[in-house]
Amino acid sequence: MKYIRNCPECGDVIAYPTKKLLWQANQRNYRCKKCRYQNLRVKRMGMKFSSEWKKNLSLNHADVSGKNNPFFNRTHSEETKRKIRLSTIKTLNEKYGGGICPKYNPIACQQIDEYGKQHGYNFKHALNGGEFYIKELGYWVDGYDKEKNVVIEYYELHHKRSKERIRDSKRLQEIINLLRCDVIILKE
Q1: What is the pTM of this model?
Q2: Calpha distance 114→77 (Å, rounded)
Q3: Which domains does the chain have, with CATH numbers?
Q4: I need a labelling partner for 171 at 20 to 30 A (CA). Which of 43, 80, 118, 132 fits?
Q5: Are the beta carbons of 181 and 151 closer than 8 angstroms?
């Protein structure tokens, strides 16, 4: 059974599958799709763009090499990347109630525990209290021994890619500079 009402703007018939949806539509004074989209088109058509803006847009879209595009092949500074990372983490914490943490590898946690027992470390990791979060940098480390000030990282196979290696080395250098710690790297 379909529930029907008329669009308040154009009078066309609108059908709803449930009584609840019909009730909501009446309460919120919903319009039909045609009227909603017509209003969007009018809003977009009413926007004014300068001829210079149109010319630049045309050039940038036509120019595959990017030489006329000021944003082509542009990268953020390390400071900007850090600010973006911290802002994203803050936003996610607010959205999800503060319980965010990165994915972890349970095999890596076992390897970290074994290494710690063999060499006399007591690492905190994802399975025994959560990964250590460095709030100044916005990084989580796989394992951290606070007493001996040692960070341990477990690199899976994808860390062998050259792009990952460069990113990992920059990340580790930032961690070392901030914590003044030793770093141990375990590889899969």
Answers
A1: 0.59
A2: 38
A3: 1-74 (no CATH), 99-187 (3.40.960)
A4: 118
A5: yes
